[in-house]
Write a structure and sequence with these properties.
seven-stranded mixed β-sheet; single chain; 7 strands; 4 helices; alpha+beta
Length: 158
């Protein structure tokens, strides 16, 4: 599948929020304690286009088919948190998830981070498979976890 990667814009906010919520709903994660109910989800461009935080969308034929971002994870030294890796159904199963992870890890390195942290949920087995195959190893739950429903935590040296 041909797509371009670019920084999120305010015009992308509704499509990205819908993509995230659609994915969470499909896996029964449209519940409190997930990003599903975060007020900021409808305005991601404002958060990610400030400071060191970054978010990129994958666009194919004018449609947002995925996205991935990062922000500092301050509880761990020199660590960025891989955030909001989501794909539209038509983009799943052809390696785009791996490509997005590789891309964002490069951006993390360029920003000076030494580790990548992420949190996910056991319902998201395909995502967990991709993370493990991308070199992430499971760690204990950090006490600073914001989304209380998340139950799987991973770390990778960059």
């Amino acid at each position: 599948m041909n797509y371009i990667l670019r920084k999120i814009t305010p015009e992308d906010d509704p499509a990205v929020a819908a993509l995230v919520r659609d994915n969470l709903k499909k896996f029964s994660l449209d519940i409190p304690g997930t990003v599903y109910f975060d007020e900021g989800l409808d305005h991601l461009s404002g958060f990610y286009n400030s400071g060191v935080c970054k978010y990129f969308v994958a666009e194919a034929e004018g449609k947002i088919i995925g996205g991935i971002g990062f922000a500092p994870f301050t509880p761990m030294k020199d660590t960025a948190e891989l955030q909001k890796l989501y794909l539209a159904d038509e983009a799943k199963g052809n390696g785009i998830g791996y490509e997005l992870i590789n891309f964002i890890e490069g951006k993390m390195r360029k920003a000076g981070f030494k580790q990548s942290y992420l949190e996910t949920h056991n319902n998201l087995q395909a995502a967990i498979h991709i993370y493990e195959n991308s070199g992430y190893h499971e760690i204990e739950r950090p006490k600073e976890v914001v989304h209380s429903t998340m139950d799987r935590f991973f770390l990778k040296g960059l």
